TrEMBL record:
Record domain Rho-GAP: where: 162-349
GO biological process, one term: small GTPase-mediated signal transduction
SMART domains, per the entry: RhoGAP
Database matches in InterPro entries: RhoGAP_dom
GO cellular component, one term: cytoplasm
Protein name: Rho-GAP domain-containing protein
Pfam (any one): RhoGAP
GO terms, molecular function: GTPase activator activity
Segments crossing the lipid bilayer: none
Amino acid sequence: MQSQKCYLAPGLLKTGLLNGNQPIYIFILNQIKDVKEVSQQMNSYLQTINAFSPFTWVICNQQVLQLEISDLKQMLNPFYKNISLQQFQRIDKLIVISEKIQFQQLVNAIPSGWSSVLANKVHLVMKLNELANHNIELTKYQIEFLSRINNNYQEEIPFYGRDLSEYPIANTGVPECLEVILKYYEDHDDYLKTQGVFRISGSIQQEQKLVQQFAKRNYTTINEYEPDVVSTVFKNLLCQLKKPIFPFEMYDILKETQINTSKEKLLEMFEVFFAYMPEVNRKTTKRIAELLFHVADYESENLMGLNNLSIVFAPCFLRPQITDISDLKGAKVVVHHFNLLVQNVEYFLQDFKVNRNSSSQKKLSI
């Protein structure tokens, strides 16, 4: 198993696709160390990977450990708290693998808020090979892993979920993988003119293949992939950073900042944040902002001006440390302020060593 990466996250098994582009998420309870963390990761995947497609959810233990109803209940409650009902309504099947659980016990274990959504979608199977009855085909590596115990299993560092500084850095000061992606867009200018650019997700299978190549620093293969696949890797890499490009505190402060706050005051606030950000974060912000400006130049063709681009990319730069899915108003305020930041990124970065007291001499885009 060491030669094949199995996990998307600890306890969340990487699988193929079901019926085209429908993702399958297999959770191995005895391998999950932090249920809350994995549930939040699941919510992130649902928002970013084929965000409007149905999905199948499989819950099991490695097969020599029987899944008990008490284990299942302990798992479902954090998932119920951390995954929005809107996302969960996309579920096509919930499949539980256990010889010890009775079907009615399984139904009763479902949180009440999910009961109507899961009506006629819950399935109980006794053996791993019965997944084939639901058109789920696992690789031999996945079957081997699910069929044995390996409590000491340690996966190599996944490509997603690192700090920005943990990626190999190019001579531009930006992570190599991001520099390659940005260069890819320079070579595929026609893609930037397409309607809804950056809104459409690419194939999960192709995304995983590209990620595997990036993890090996084999960047030349990027030209073998469609732009939608590259954009999916681009957004997921940013959204799933261990710490966002802008610190968690910045999201919290911006959320509480009135939308009618003067631009000068907001820009002074941003400048303070930029002063304490790592250099790689500042340079990455500048490079991506340059791309967004270029995309916005084609607004008449792609319908993606800076406002729409801010809606797409604000979550890639800013997020709260604890997700509150009900705080739509706060999220909209953050997007509004992020739009202003992008428009004025040169204000912070063109001469970063200048003393902040001289900021009034800089030209603002307001």
